[in-house]
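Now for a concrete sample entry.
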Amino acid sequence: MQAASDLTQLKKRLQRQRHKAIQRFRLRPRSEHLLRRLSTYTDQCLTQLTALKPLPAASALIAVGGYGRQELYPFSDVDILILLHHPPSLNEQHAIEQFIAALWDIGIKAASSVRTIAQCLEAAEADIATQTAQLEARFITGHLKLFKQLQKSLEQQLEVKTFFQAKLAEMRQRHAHYQNTPYALEPNCKESPGALRDLQILLWLAKAMGLGDSWQQIAQAQLLSPAELRAITRASAAFMRLRIELHLLSQRAEDRLLFDYQPELARIYGFTGKDKQQASEKLMQRYYWAARTVHQMNTILMQNLEEILFSPQPPVREPIDAFFEVRNQRLHLRQPEQLQKHPDLILRAFLLLQQRGDLHHFSAQTLRALWHARRLINESFRQQPLHQQLFLAILQQPRGVLHALRLMNMLNILPRYIPEFRHIVGQMQHDLFHVYTVDQHTLMVIRNLRRFTLAEYANDHPLASQLMDAFERPWVLYIAALFHDIAKGRGGNHAELGAQDALAFCQRHQLSAADTELIVFLVYDHLSMSMVAQKRDISDPTVIADFAKHVSTPRRLSALFLLTVADIKGTNPTIWNSWKAKLLSDLYTLTLRVLQGDQPNATEILAQRKAQALTQLLAQNIDANDIENLWDVFDISYFLRHECEEIVWHGQALHKALLHPHPVVETRPVGKGETIQIMIYTPDREDLFMHICAFFDQHHLNTQDARIYTTNHGWALDSFVLLLPRHQRYSTNFAKTLQHQLCTFLQHPQTPFDTAPRYLPQTQSRRARVFPIAPIVDIQPMSQPHTWKISIVCADRKGLLYSIAQAFTAQRINVKSAKIMTLGERVEDTFIVHSDELHHTAFFKQFERALRSVL
C-alpha cells in the first residue's frame, strides 16, 4: 500500500510541476524554457521512481531522442534507454517490467528500450533512426561509467560519411512522403519539408562531424553568418512554439496543423481578420514564410556539409569567365563580394546554371551569396535593361526554367524581382479546391506548361503537346502563368488586377505589342475557357460562335487552351480527369473550325449530323426504317444538343427498343477508364432524375455532366457522365453489372434515404466545416417560355445532387440538363429546368428557400 501511495504522490507532483511550467509558458511563451523544464521535471520523477522501483545493479537510465536533447514537448513520448551491463536474468527482467509499468502508473508515456552496449551498437547498425536517437543519449541516473562506455562505443562506431548519406536519404524519403513541399494545406510542423526535422538533421550532422551541437557553435565553426544565425534561431523558436501550441490545443501529441486548429491557433497568436478564414490565412502565410527560411538554410547548410565531407581537395576547377568557375561540378562564384559591384551576376548565375548541362547545382558559397544578395534587388535593379534582358533570357532557355524559378523563389529573389509576387508567397486559398499556396500553384502551372514540351508526357496530353510544339515563343505562356493569379488575396477581380500587373511588366521589359496583348488577354481571361467548357453546352453552335468571337485568333485559342489545362492540373491533382480533358479539347476543336471560317448555321449543322449518323448506322447493317422510326420521336433540339457519335451510339442501342417494355441502359468508357458515360432510356416520370441520382450516390459515382431529354412519345433519354470511385476502373464485367443493377433499380426504385429525413445530413470534409463557403443560388429566366437557369455554388458532400434533385421533385421542377462542375470540395452546378410556376413570385421565393435549406 505504501508503494502505491508513493506512486500517487509522485504522479501528483509531476502533474503540478507540468501545470506550473505550462502556466509560466502561457504568461511568457519561451519555448526552450518550457521544453527544458518538462524534461528536468521528468528527470527528477524518473530518478525518484528508481528508488521505489529499483533497476538492476550496474544499469543506467538514459534519455534518448528528443528527450535526450532536453526538448520534451507536452504530450510527446518520453524516450528512455535502460542500459544493462549484460543480458538480464529473470529477476532483473521482472524488475525492469515493474519499473516500466510504474512509468505508466505515474502518467509518463514512455517509449522504452532495454539493451546492452553490444545490442545498442547492433541496433544502430541496423536502423539510422535508432543510431540518431542514441547519439543524443543523456545520462539520468544509475551507473555513469556504463553510460560513458556506451558514448565511447557509439562514437567509435560512427562513420561520418555513411551517416551523412543515410540521413540525406532519410530526409529525401521524408520529403517525398510530404510531396516535397513545405506548402501543404495541413503541414506537419515536425516532419514536413521546411519544418523542425529539417533543422534537427543539420544539428545531428554537425554534431557527428564535430562542428558543434547548437546553432551558436555551428556559427563559430564559420558555417553560419550572424544574419543566418539570427534567421535560423528565430525559425527554430517559432517551430518549437507552434508544436507546443498544437500539443496544448489538441491535448495530445499532434504535430499537424489541421484545419480544425488553424482558427484557434490564429487567435492564440493574435491574428485578426473579418472572419476566422482570413485570420487563419495570415497564420498560415507566416508559417510558410518560416518554412521557407528553414528550407533555405537546410539547402545551403546540407550542401555546405556535403562539400566538407565529400569534395576532393584541392577542388577540381574549370574557369568560365572572370566571375564564375565550375568547382566540383557546381557553379561557383569566385568572389561573392563582386555581387555588390555587379548585381547582374545574381541573374547571370541562374542563366549559367541553365546553359551548362554539366553543372549539378550552385556551390554552397554561391547559394549563400545569392541569398544574401537578394536585398540588392530593388526598384533601381528592376529598371536596368541588362537585368530585364537576363530575366527574360532565363524564361527563354530550352531547359531548367522551372528549376531556376523554384530556386529564385526559395532564395527570395523572384518575389523581389516581381514585387507583386511577394504578396502571394505562402498565400493560402480556402476555396475548397486549391491544394497549394498561390505561389506554389503558379510554379505548378509553369511545370505543367514545361511538361507539354517533353516527349515523355506527350501521351498524357497529346493535343497540348502538339500545340506547344507548334507554339512560337512559349516563354510568353510562362509570363502569363506567373501573373495569372498574382492578384489573389488583394480583393477585387484578381484577373483584372493581374492583367494590369502583367501589362506593366511587359511594358517595362519592352515586349512586342503582339506578345504584350496576348499575355494581358491570357491573364484577364484565364478562367474563360474552363467556364465555357464546364458550364455551357458546347454542342450549341451559338455558344461556340460567341466563344470564337471572344478569343478572335487561333494563336489566342491555342495559348488559352494550354494555360487552361496547365492551370486546372496545377490546382488540385484530383480534379483533372478524362471528361474535363475531352470537354476542353472538344471546345478547342469546335472553336478552331469557326476561327478558320467554318461557320454553318443550325440548319446546316442539323443536316450534317443526321447525314453522318445515318451513314454510320447503315454501315452497321441497321435497317433504315428502324432508324426513321426512332428519329421520328426526336425533335430538332435532340439533334442540336447531341454530337454525331452520340446520336450513333443511341441509334445502335435503341433502334429496336421504341416499344421495349423495360428500361434500356448502356455504358461506355470515357478517356482512360476513370470516367464512364451512361445512357438511360425509360418511361419518363417526375421523380426519375431524383431516383437516378440516388442510384449514383449508392454506387459512389460522381456525376460530372447530365443531359436530360424527353422524346415526343413521353420517354426519357438521359445521358450522364460519371467519375468512378478511385479504386474502380472501367471493365466489361463492371459495365454489365452496373447496367443490370440500374435497370432493376429503375423498375423498382428503392433508396436508403426513403425512410430517412427528407434531406441528407451534411457530411462535409473538415476543411469545408471549418472554412465554409456561403452557398449561392441564382435563378434566372431564359428566353424559352417556362425555362429557367439555376446556378448553385456550395461545398461538396455525399448525397448533394440527390438532395437537390429531391427539392426539384418536391416542387415539380423538371430538369432538362445539368452541368456538374466539381472542383475539389467545391461544386459549381448549373441546371436548365422547366417549370410552369416559377414565374409566380410566391412560388419562386418558396422554391429558393427550399433549395437553400438543402445546401
Notes: The longest strand covers residues 814-823. The radius of gyration is 33 Å. The first helix runs from residue 2 to 27.
